[in-house]
Amino acid sequence: MFTTIKSFINDESGATAIEYGLIAALVSVAAIGALGLLGDALEDMFDAVAAALTGALPT
After folding, report:
1. Structural domain includes residue 46
2. pLDDT-based confidence at residue 29 (cuts at 50, 70, 90)
3. Alpha-carbon gap, residue 3 to 16, rounded angstroms
4. DSSP label at 57?
5. Dist. CA 14–CA 32, nearest whole Å
6. How far is CA 12 from CA 1, 5, 34, in A?
7. 23 in any annotated domain
8. Dist CA 44 CA 52 (whole Å)
9. What is the rounded average pLDDT of the residues 46-56?
10. Would you state the pLDDT for residue 5?
11. Is the entire prediction scored with pTM above 0.90?
């Protein structure tokens, strides 16, 4: 009985999977944040280009 409990306590095979899951979640959160900031900058740039092109159209 003690050997079974001792081997269960010393078993760390699931810890690696949990660590990889945490790393993947952290990378996902960082990517979502970066793309959110980049998306706002791209929207501003496209708005500026659209305004410049609208002013350049012949009437």
Report:
1. yes
2. very high
3. 23
4. S
5. 27
6. 19, 13, 34
7. no
8. 12
9. 87
10. 78
11. no
